[in-house]
């Protein structure tokens, strides 16, 4: 089981989301944290350091990296904005 932690930008992004999107994101993060290998559900990222992978929740993307059983959430943005 993995622990989920937010960077300051990740926490700010989560607070900016509407209530329904926020609950969907939190539910998905809970699901991924309980999986033995959450990277199985992710795609690798190239130019968005320090994030190395991303999860997809509807039209939103969750950029993250993993260190020692901790998923660090870097950004949560709409797909049209996250890669800029």
UniProtKB/TrEMBL annotation:
Keywords: Toxin-antitoxin system. Gene3D superfamilies: RelE-like (3.30.2310.20). Pfam families: ParE_toxin. The keyword Manganese does not apply. Belongs to the RelE toxin family. This is Plasmid stabilization protein. It comes from Candidatus Woesebacteria bacterium RIFCSPLOWO2_01_FULL_44_14.
